[in-house]
Amino acid sequence: MSTEMLRVTEIEALSPLVKRFRFEHPRGAKLPLFSGGAHVVVEMPDGDVLRRNAYSLISDPQDGSGYEIAVRREDGGRGGSRFMHACVRQGDMLRISAPLNLFSLDMRARKHVLIAGGIGITPILAQMRQLLRMQGRFEVHYAARARSEAAGLRLLPRLPHIHAHISDEGNRIDLGAILDRQPIGTHVYTCGPEGLITAVAQCAERLGWPRGSLHSEVFLAPPPGRSFEVTLARSGRTITVGPHQSLLEALEEAQVEIDWSCRGGACGRCETEVVSCHGRIEHHDHWLSEDEHSSQAKIMPCVSRFRGKELIINR
Amino acid sequence: MPATKFTPSIASRPVYGGLKSHGAVPALMLANGPGGEALLELIKADPSVLPHTYMIYIPEGCDLGRSLEACGPASFFEAASYASILPRFRKLLADAGMNTRLYLAGTEGLIGQATSEALAAGMLLEAIDAEHRGSVARRMQCVHCKGITENVTTDPFTCSHCGLTLFVRDHYSRRHAAFQGVCVDAETPGEIPPRQEIKA
C-alpha cells in the first residue's frame, strides 16, 4: 500500500471528545484527490508498538491541499485514538496511506439521503462536500445524543436540507418519516453505530424499499480479548496474539507478509484460509457471509479472534 | 399461453424471473398481448397487489382488457402501442416512490424498453418483475443506421430504415432493449443466405 509522510498542520477540538486533524505534504505538494466516503490509514508509532487505524476523510474530496480527519477519543479502546489525542502535536510527521473508498456514492442515484449517527458523520461530511460540488440532490440527517457531543455540527453548513436530530432536545431521529415517500432513484448511506444501520435496514424493508438502495459502513476497532496462539502452516511457526493486539498486528510483528486495507473487517483484503481449527473462531467482520462464518474455513485477521485448542492458518 | 421458455444459449439475453407478488405496495403493471394473462395469474395468486396498482394494457389483438379492468386495480388504462403510453409511463415513474414495484409482462421488446426506462428513472432492477409471454419475435437495432426494426421473425431481415439486409446476431443490448443486426452481404454484395424463421 502506498503511503506518504505528511505534516500535521492543524489540530482543533470539535467537542470534548473529538479532535480534527489536518495533514499536508511537507513541501506543499498536492495530495491525490479522492471521493466522498474514502478513508486513510494513519500509522502511529507509540513506543515500540506501531498502531494503524483507518479514519474517514472529512475534507473536500476535490481539494488536494490537505487531508482532514476527525478522531473520537475512545478511552476503552486499544490506544490509537488516545495516542492521536494525547501525543500528536502540530508540526509532527505521520505516515498516511493513500485514500481508499469502500463507501462511495452510487452515481446512478437521483437523490442521496445521508444518515449519520455520532462520529459516523465523518465519511458523510466528505460525501456531502462532493454532492455540494456536483449540485446533487441530497439530504443529510445527523443524529446525536446531545449538542455538546455533536462534533459534526460545526462542520455542517446551515442549509435547509441538512438536519441535526438531537435526542436530548426531544428531536430524536425518526427514520420512518425520513424514508417514507422518497422518490424512486433514492439511495441511502448510513454510517454510525450498528443499531442505527440495522434500524435503517429494517425501516426500509418495512416500507418496501429494494435492498440495493441501502449502503452502510461500520469500521470496527479490533476488539480486545483473551490472548491466543496461532500456527502458521507455511513456516510451521506458532505466534501469540496478545489481549490488546489483533491477529493481523501479531502477524505483522512476526514479519509475515499480509495484504490489508481497512483493518476494520470491511474490505476483505486480509482474508485468510483456515487449515485446521479445533475451537471456535470469534468472527467480528462484515466481510464473510454467515455460512463462511459457521464453516470456520476462513478468518479475517484484522478483527477476528480465536478461542480453543488449535488454529492453523494458511500464512 | 404459458410463459415463453428460451434455450439458454444466448449469454447476453436477460432471464425473466416471472411475476411474483410483493404484496400491497404501490405498483405499476404494464403488459401487452398475452402478457395480460400473466397479470391475471398474478392477481389470482395474490389479490392484495391490486388496491395500489396503476395498470396499463396494450392488447395487440388479445382481448384481455375487460377481464383486467374487472379485477379492480386502482387505475386502468388501455392503449394501442408502447409509444403511445410512454409519456404516461414516464410520468408514473417520475411520481413513484422508493416502495413502488414494477410488473412487466408480454413481449421481450416491451419488457426491455420499459425496464431501461425504469432504470433511467432510478428504479433498481430488483424492484422490477418481468415475465415473457407471446411471440419470440425480436426487436432489432441496425448497427449501421441505428434504426430499430420491431417484430423481426426471420434471419436475415431487411432493415426498415436503411434497407440493408441484416444478419440477426445473438447479442442483446439492455441499453437499447434490442438485438444487433449486422449487414449480411457486406463482403460479397448481393450474396444473401436463405431466410430462416427465428425459433428462439
TrEMBL record, chain A:
Residues 228-315 form the 2Fe-2S ferredoxin-type domain. The keyword Protease does not apply. The keyword Transport does not apply. Keywords: 2Fe-2S, Flavoprotein, Iron, Iron-sulfur, Metal-binding, Oxidoreductase. Residues 1-106 form the FAD-binding FR-type domain. One of its GO terms (molecular function) is metal ion binding. InterPro entries: 2Fe-2S_ferredoxin-like_sf, 2Fe-2S_ferredoxin-type, Beta-grasp_dom_sf, Cbr1-like_FAD-bd_dom, DmmA-like_N, FAD-bd_FR_type, FNR_nucleotide-bd, MRET. It holds the Pfam family FAD_binding_6. This is Oxidoreductase.
TrEMBL record, chain B:
It comes from the Bacteria. Residues 9-124 form the Dimethylamine monooxygenase subunit DmmA-like N-terminal domain. The keyword Aminoacyl-tRNA synthetase does not apply. Keywords: 2Fe-2S, Flavoprotein, Iron, Iron-sulfur, Metal-binding, Oxidoreductase. Residues 139-182 form the Dimethylamine monooxygenase subunit DmmA-like C-terminal domain. The keyword Transcription regulation does not apply. GO terms for molecular function: 2 iron, 2 sulfur cluster binding; metal ion binding; oxidoreductase activity. InterPro entries: DmmA-like_C, DmmA-like_N. This is Uncharacterized protein.
